[in-house]
Amino acid sequence: MKDIFSFEMHLLDLPGDDVILKIMDYLSPRDWLNFRCVCKQTYFLVHEYFKYMKYLDLSHHKVLPQALCQILPQQCHSLKVFKIPNSNIFSDESVKTIIQNNPNLSHLDLSNSNLKNGALQPLVVSCKRLEKIMLKNCFWLTVGAIEILAFHFPETIKVADFSGCTGISEASIILFVKRQPKLVSLSLSDLSCIQDETLVTISMFCPQLMYLDISRCCRITDSGIKKFAEYCQTVRTLKVDGCEVSERSLSWLRSRGVWIDKPQYPSYLLHRLNQIQTWPRTQL
């Protein structure tokens, strides 16, 4: 009787669509390639997984196999989220092919990547549903690229990060902001070109903005912060660390419950500082 009911079950005996493909969500990129090499059946299973994969986030993998850059561009056709920050193994052509083959892409993260400006060209033609674009520290980003994003994605982008992109200008950012009324989060840290005019434009054209990062934008003043506080009623987080702004302009935002990364000094100390600032200067 024992022999009658004894049987061996292998991994590939499990339903591919219902079990194996779901397990692959928890595997690393190297595991995908290793599993692909087991046999012909696993080879096609992995390709099937890539074909219908909607979320590809490689941000947590410091080392990626080079072969992955050759397979993914040809096999991925259903991506909605494509995140490869800090990755140097993807070439311009690989990124362009992936963007071109995935028209439903809504979230693109190329932060800290070493690409060329042309890598974003397929976005204009293929991807009309873009909502999030993260290009932090992309030194290859140009004024023309920002203008193209502004004109070809009007009223669609909700989250944008251009922090540290030293190749862009304030005028291009202002143009972008004017055409993106649905912006909820905007990061512009480490941009010396940003001035008070940008803050005024953001406050007037982004009625849904909740998060703004202008850390280390050294040309921002109290005047710009005051105007921003007056017109932008939806902001919940403001990062101004490294900006030459005082509590005089930030206090109004704090009173509305806005979280600010710059520490608040006690009221008695602020009063003392104000007194010192009003003292007449000694003429030498």
What can you see in these coordinates?
The mean pLDDT is 88. Helix 3 packs across helix 4 (40-52). Helices cover 41% and strands 9% of the residues. It has 13 helices and nine strands. The protein has a nine-stranded parallel β-sheet with strand order 1-2-3-4-5-6-7-8-9, covered by helices on one side. It has helices at 2-5, 16-23, 29-36, 40-52, 68-75, 92-101, 121-126, 143-152, 170-178, 196-205, 222-231, 247-255, 267-278; strands at residues 55-57, 81-83, 107-109, 132-134, 159-161, 185-187, 211-213, 237-239, 259-260. The chain is elongated and about 85 Å long. The N and C termini lie far apart (108 Å). The protein has a domain at 131-274: Leucine-rich repeat, LRR (right-handed beta-alpha superhelix) (Alpha-Beta Horseshoe), CATH 3.80.10. It has 284 residues and is α/β, with parallel strands linked by helices. Helix 12 (247-255) links the parallel strand 8 (237-239) and strand 9 (259-260). It comes from Daphnia galeata. Residues 17-47 form the F-box domain. Pfam families: F-box, LRR_6.
